[in-house]
Every structure is written in structure tokens, then in C-alpha cells.
Write a structure and sequence with these properties.
The protein has two domains: about 5-30 and about 265-360, Aspartate Aminotransferase, domain 1; about 35-260, Type I PLP-dependent aspartate aminotransferase-like (Major domain) (Aspartate Aminotransferase, domain 2, 3-Layer(aba) Sandwich). Helices cover about 40% and strands about 15% of the residues. The protein is built from 13 helices and 13 strands. α4 packs parallel to α10 (about 250-260), α5 packs across α9 (about 230-240) and α10 crosses α11. The N and C termini lie far apart (about 45 Å). The relative contact order is 0.18. It binds pyridoxal-5'-phosphate. Pyridoxal-5'-phosphate binds near residues 26 and 223.
């Protein structure tokens, strides 16, 4: 199997642990183990204390699958398969649902593996950009449909743009016919919770979820697929036997603790996001050399620099001179001088101040 390099992950590997101020991270501030354990109810405290470190169930711990199912309207624990974070299920689903010669439509900008794995399987992939103001352009997707279109892939809420389709747009997308695969790893961080749209799995598609982003628990490496299609589920499970087989037991218990306390866990992330958005509103009001479409959901936005800069060079010098990491839009194959900004980390105001100082010295 040959697959193109994963530009975003390569970039993070280079900078994430060598640059002190991260201004482009998409995961919420990570929890301390002690703080998370303090949220455990008696059942899960006992499960944690008495845990043995053997193999676990292939589809995931029953209590975890139940907690995950409670995030949906129609999905039951049986419809959930637990994985090692989000990349493994993307790989598994793309491997079993896509055949060489199939056609896949993916909405961009988004996370490269959502279409790259399908491409490496021999599928033809049509990339459809988000429209004006980062709106989901269902008309443009419809125009790409072919008799062999097997899957439509989107990331909603979206990274890098922080955009979110309306429920009506989502339902229009489902009405097109092909299987809809929605990467919903930023779900539950809608900036106005009334904007939350139905999950794909509740509408007959496949949902991808993870503990890494809104829940601030990337280190657990726990994610899942939810689908109410039993045949597809069995094929995915059969493929998982060739991957991790099962998840890490400690991570499963910790993820269940977080999901049972999700109001507190998500409330903490929302508090950081709200405080940082206020700082960013002030920044964009003061600076006409930077602009963005204010995100509606998630942890990131795509910022445009209205200056004559070459963005990869700007990012490299910003890292060298101010110790600040930004993720150039070119990593998403997005043209122009843009970068992703992440606003779910507590260190964002300092990183932003450093970016501002650096810009003013240019
Ligand atoms: C949209 C999207 N999907 C999936 C992932 C992968 O998540 P994880 O690192 O938890 O596997 C990311 C991580 O950046 C992402 O932004």
C-alpha cells in the first residue's frame, strides 16, 4: 500500500514538542489524571482500583459503549465500536467500505486521512471546498455525484475553519444518497449549544467520535465509530482484528469516567474557549492585517493575514524567533496566507501576544 505523507501530522511531529507556545492545537487543554479520577462515581472508582491489565473486549468495554451511546439519540451500545482514537477507525472504515474504482467525495479543508486512505485504496476522490463564509456547498457536492459514488465524507464541526453546517444542509446531504461519514470529533463544542446538529449515525450514516478534542483527553487514545448498519459493523470489527484488536483497559475506564461527567468535562473546555474567543474578538477588532470568519463550533479557526507574506516562511520564523507554533493553511492545501489558530488551550493569550509582537516587527 502506498499513501501520501500526512502533512499535518508531519508538521506537528516537527514542532509540537520542541516549540513552547502552541497556537494551532485542536485539542482542549488536557486533564490531569488526578482531577479526572476525582470525578469518578463509586462504580468506576472500584473498576479503576480493581482493574487488571489484560486484554479487553474487541468492541470496547460495555460500560464505555453505553456511555458513548448516551451521546446520541438513536444509537445503542451495540452500534458502537471503540478504537484507539480517531485515526484507527478512519483507516478501518475506509478499508472496508471503499473498493478500488469507487468514487468518494470529501469536503475540504479537513483532516487529510479522511480522504487519503480512500485514495490509497484506489478510490477516485473529488475534493469539494467549503463555500463562501465556510458554508457547506451541497450544490457543489451534488454536481460531483457519479453512479459509483460510494461515500461522502465531511468533518463537522470543521477543523481548521470552525464552521458547522445547518441541520437543513446536513439533511440535504443525506438526501443525495451515498453513505455519509461524518468526523464529529469537535462535536459538543458548539459555541452556542443550540447550534448542535444531529449526529450522522442518528440519521443513518457513520459517526466518528473521540475523547481527544472536546473532552481534552488525547492521551487516552480512545475513539469510536457509531453506525446502525449491522453488516457494516461486523466488517469493521473483522478488520479491527488486524489492527489494535482492543483498547487499553485503563483508558477505557478513564474515558467512561469523563463521559459520565460530561457536563463538567465539557464545561471546563467551553470555559477556556469562551475566554479565548473574547481575547480573539478584541484582537481581530484591533488588527485589520488579520481576518477570519468567526468560528461557530470546535476549537480552531482559519486566520487570513492581509500582508504580503509567504506563510510557511512566516511560520518558520515565528517558531524560531518567538517560540510560537502556527499551522500554515498550505498544510491543508489551502491557498494564500492563512493559518489555523487553536483556542482551546489556556496558553493561547500569551502565544497570541507573541504573534502580535512578531508581526509588528516585520
Ligand atoms: C478532524 C480530525 N479528525 C481526526 C483527528 C485525529 O484525532 P486523534 O489524534 O485523536 O486520533 C484529528 C486530529 O487532529 C482531527 O482534527
Amino acid at each position: 500500500m502506498s499513501i501520501a505523507p500526512f502533512k499535518l501530522e508531519q508538521y506537528f511531529e516537527r514542532y509540537e514538542f520542541s516549540v513552547p507556545h502552541l497556537l494551532s492545537s485542536s485539542d482542549a487543554q488536557a486533564w490531569r489524571l488526578d482531577d479526572l479520577l476525582a470525578l469518578a462515581d463509586e462504580e468506576l472508582r472500584t473498576a479503576w482500583n480493581e482493574l487488571t491489565l489484560g486484554y479487553t473486549e474487541v468492541r470496547g468495554h460495555p460500560l464505555l459503549r453505553e456511555a458513548i451511546a448516551s451521546l446520541y439519540d438513536e444509537v445503542t451500545a451495540e452500534d458502537v465500536i471503540v478504537f484507539a482514537a480517531a485515526q484507527e477507525p478512519i483507516f478501518a472504515l475506509s478499508s472496508v467500505a471503499i473498493e478500488p474504482g469507487d468514487h468518494v467525495i470529501a469536503v475540504v479543508p479537513s483532516y487529510q486521512s479522511l480522504y487519503e486512505v480512500a485514495r490509497s485504496r484506489g478510490a477516485e476522490v473529488s475534493l469539494v471546498p467549503l463555500g463562501e463564509g465556510w458554508r457547506l456547498d451541497v450544490g457543489a457536492i451534488r454536481a460531483e455525484l457519479r453512479p459509483n459514488t460510494r461515500m461522502i465524507v465531511l468533518n463537522a464541526p470543521n477543523s481548521p475553519t470552525g464552521s458547522l453546517p445547518s441541520e437543513a444542509e446536513l439533511r440535504e446531504l443525506f438526501a443525495l444518497g451515498p453513505l455519509v461519514f461524518a468526523d464529529e470529533v469537535y462535536r459538543f463544542l458548539e459555541h452556542d449549544p443550540r447550534d448542535r446538529i444531529p449526529a450522522a449515525a442518528d440519521l443513518g450514516g457513520v459517526s466518528l467520535g473521540v475523547m481527544s478534542k472536546a473532552f481534552g483527553l488525547a492521551g487516552l487514545r480512545i475513539g469510536w465509530l457509531a453506525t446502525r448498519d449491522p453488516r457494516l459493523r461486523e466488517r469493521i470489527v473483522a478488520f479491527k482484528h488486524y489492527l489494535t484488536i482492543c483498547s487499553a483497559g485503563p483508558s477505557e475506564i478513564l474515558a467512561t469516567i469523563a463521559l459520565r461527567s460530561r457536563d463538567a468535562v465539557l464545561g471546563r473546555a467551553r470555559g477556556i474557549v469562551d475566554a479565548n474567543l473574547a481575547v480573539l474578538d478584541d484582537f481581530f477588532a484591533r488588527r485589520d492585517d488579520f481576518g477570519w470568519v468567526r468560528p461557530r463550533a470546535g476549537t480552531t479557526g482559519l486566520v487570513e493575514i492581509h500582508r504580503d507574506v509567504e506563510i510557511e516562511d512566516f511560520a518558520r520564523r515565528l517558531a524560531d524567533e518567538e517560540g510560537v507554533m502556527i499551522l500554515p493553511g498550505t498544510i491543508f492545501d489551502w491557498p494564500g496566507a492563512t493559518f489555523r489558530i487553536g483556542y482551546a488551550r489556556t496558553g493561547m493569550p500569551e502565544a497570541l501576544a507573541r504573534l502580535e509582537r512578531f508581526t509588528d516587527q516585520q
